[in-house]
Design a protein that fits this description.
By secondary structure, the protein is α+β, with helices and mostly antiparallel strands. Helices cover 71% and strands 7% of the residues. Strands 1-2-3-5-4 form a five-stranded antiparallel β-sheet, with helices on one face. It is globular, with a radius of gyration of 27 Å.
Length: 526
């Protein structure tokens, strides 16, 4: 909850240009991410026996008390590292370090397995096994901390920037994750009990295979959902209607191509997947294949539903997201399973996955209709209807220019359009000249020195008129380059050295550069 809520708040503040506030959120989330589990660790170390009895080491299982205590104490020692690692991991991609969490996960796995083997061979007992888990998490955390040795980093531990009221905001925005976990647990308990009551062991095992299919493909679901949440948060902070529309279109295109292909591939490979679990039980294998194929058919709809949840998360629409998450993670599947059982028997549990996705899409449509009616929006097309943004979100179309540049020939055209845009809004000659110059100079420099052969480089240029201020937002996917810092490194005594860049930036009231998700972002206010 802390990690998810903090990430959404962090990206929103970054999009709004509040870097200090974003760093305060990061500092607060890291503090809570380590501090709260430290308190829990202390409680466990002080009262291990009552907690073990609460967890079930009592009555007929009282003989397991000492083993449970040993494992619990061993694991508790690693709680601060476990939670802090999860908290830090969500920021790494935002701060242009996508590889480090992967390395951290590999280190965690290798160290944990190696220590488990050593402890099992030496008779270290349950305490040793729990301690091995803790040590592996501290090793994984050490890998993540390497990120902070980088000189150019956005994430900085800044206690002076902490706003304690943000703690409530983070927890509220992360609440849907907690609701989803609880709903998923409830779904597992109810369906397992249902299968145990009505079905034979082969059906229970086949359902387990479907859950393993879910575990295998889940990274794609949550990867798209997390990306949707992160980018939506940034673009919502910017109030960028144009790019939000592009994001929703791109997500649907991704589902219609890559995800559909992946789903079809898994459908064809389901016999091989089922054979991993049942190599000498033909009846169980047949059930497992049908269960896995049921999951494959519903997988694209599942991705779409979770992508919309990510959109709601990035927009900060916590209440709607909580309802949708609860229903998608468990509520609809349980209801569908019980409704289908009289007609389909035990296989209702598998086909409930399809029905739940359809029900969720209908719920999403209802949520969008209610939201649009409440916001009194007048959508021009499907994408406007889907986003359901308030009318005052972003400036009117007449007060902005949104353009994507892929070559030098487009730069001159945009520079002229910027000049005409300023004339249309009655801009004074001095600012009109500097705005046109900034567009031409910065875009030309990026195309000339940033674009690389064989790569799909582009520049997203945005020109806004807000009250009496003109704002230029320039984003590109070239190599990391900070023009504001570079200007400070130039020889101030040389008046002609990079004069175009100097005029473009020094004429601004404010020039702010950040790099997020390996994208250069420059905001100039003139």
């Amino acid at each position: 909850m802390i990690a998810s809520g903090a990430r959404d708040r962090f990206t929103t503040l970054m999009g709004a240009g509040d870097i200090a506030g974003a760093r305060g959120v990061f500092t607060l989330s890291a503090t809570l991410g380590a501090g709260l589990p430290t308190l829990l660790m202390i409680v466990i170390l002080l009262f291990p026996d009552p907690i073990c009895r609460l967890l079930g080491a009592t009555g007929g299982a009282a003989g397991l008390l000492s083993q449970t205590r040993g494992y619990l104490i061993g694991v508790a020692i690693g709680l601060p590292a476990m939670n802090l690692s999860r908290t830090l991991s969500v920021y790494m991609a935002i701060d242009n370090d996508r590889l480090l969490p992967v390395i951290s996960s590999l280190v965690l796995t290798v160290v944990d397995i190696a220590l488990d083997v050593i402890i099992a061979a030496s008779g270290g007992g349950t305490f040793g096994m729990g301690l091995a888990t803790s040590v592996s998490h501290y090793a994984a955390l050490a890998v993540l901390l390497v990120h902070f040795r980088r000189e150019e980093r956005l994430l900085r531990f800044t206690p002076s920037a902490v706003r304690w009221k943000e703690a409530r905001v983070m927890l509220v925005r992360g609440l849907p994750v907690g609701i989803g976990r609880a709903s998923n647990t409830l779904r597992t308990i109810v369906l397992n009990q249902s299968l145990a009551w009505f079905a034979v062991a082969g059906c229970i095992a086949a359902y387990g295979v479907q859950r393993q299919a879910d575990s295998l493909l889940n990274p794609f679901i949550f990867g798209i959902s997390d990306a949707m949440s992160t980018l939506t948060g940034i673009l919502s902070g910017e109030e960028n209607r144009h790019m939000l529309k592009w994001l929703t279109k791109d997500c649907l295109l991704l589902v219609c191509t890559f995800i559909l292909a992946l789903s079809a591939l898994f459908w064809f490979l389901s016999p091989l997947f089922g054979a991993l679990f049942f190599d000498d039980a033909p009846e169980a294998l047949e059930l497992a294949v049908r269960a896995a194929r049921c999951y494959a058919v519903g997988f694209p709809l599942c991705v779409l539903c979770h992508a919309y949840e990510g959109y709601l998360e990035g927009r900060g629409e916590t209440r709607r997201n909580m309802i949708l998450t609860f229903l998608s993670e468990g509520g609809f599947i349980v209801l569908a399973a019980f409704a289908l059982q009289p007609f389909m028997g035990v296989e209702a549990v598998w086909y409930a996955f399809h029905v739940s996705q359809v029900l969720q899409l209908l719920t999403i449509a209802v949520i969008i209709l209610i939201r649009n009616r409440r916001e009194k929006t007048r959508p021009k097309d499907f994408w406007e209807w889907f986003m359901g943004l308030p009318e005052d979100f972003d400036v009117p179309e007449c007060d902005r220019i949104d353009r994507t540049i892929t070559g030098k020939d487009e730069v001159i055209s945009l520079s002229r359009d910027a000049w005409d845009f300023c004339e249309k809004h009655g801009c004074d000659p001095r600012r009109k000249y500097y705005i046109s110059l900034a567009v031409e100079e910065l875009a030309t420099n990026t195309v000339t020195y940033g674009f690389r052969p064989g790569r799909h480089n582009c520049i997203d240029m945005r020109i806004l008129k807000k009250k009496d201020e003109y704002i230029l937002r320039i984003r590109d996917n070239c190599e990391i380059f900070d023009p504001v810092k570079q200007l400070q490194l130039y020889d101030a005594s040389s008046p002609v050295h990079h004069i175009g860049l100097k005029l473009a930036l020094c004429s601004a009231r404010e020039a702010q550069y950040t790099t997020v998700l390996k994208l250069n972002n420059l905001v100039i206010r003139i």
